[in-house]
# Entry
Amino acid sequence: MANINHKPSKYMLNLLHVLPPFVEDKKDIINTIVEINSGSINKYETITESGQLKLDRVGYSSLAYPFAYGAIPKTWDYDGDPLDVEIVNVIEPLVLGCLVEARIIGVMKFEDTGEVDDKIIAVLSDDRRSDHIKSIDDLGEQFKKETSYFWEHVKHLKKPGTGINKGFFDKAEAIKVIRECEKRYNNIYLKNFE
# Structure
């Protein structure tokens, strides 16, 4: 896991810019940096430039994340951040800032304050408790309702009506979104540093 093709460094590596989005030789397993555990009302985010985790904002309500949450390295979504990942069916809290390998099961297309802010949906790749989960449909209708409700209302007290679920889609569409965000990272984000 996480064999980094990088020369030794006396400085801590920023995994957002070192690891590829997809785990080597695996077409549906992604590298994910964990930023939030389920049950948290606070929003933590990896600082893109340095790689440290920071408290992005204190939750606006008592609505807690119903899943673990993180970011995919070397991706860039339209909202100006790495692509988001919901990691579902996690039994024990993960260490914030750690790297996990997650198996893609789908994507929720989402709009936040008029910007595309899609959410890849995945499970931990080596958790046998999740082997039976192959698609979003395997999580049931309650998962879709709860996830939609969370994203549509998590900012409601600050910016009512700004979160819009555009639908749930399959693994193939999720991989397409990741590849597009990978291209955007290379063509837009990296261009700022040339």
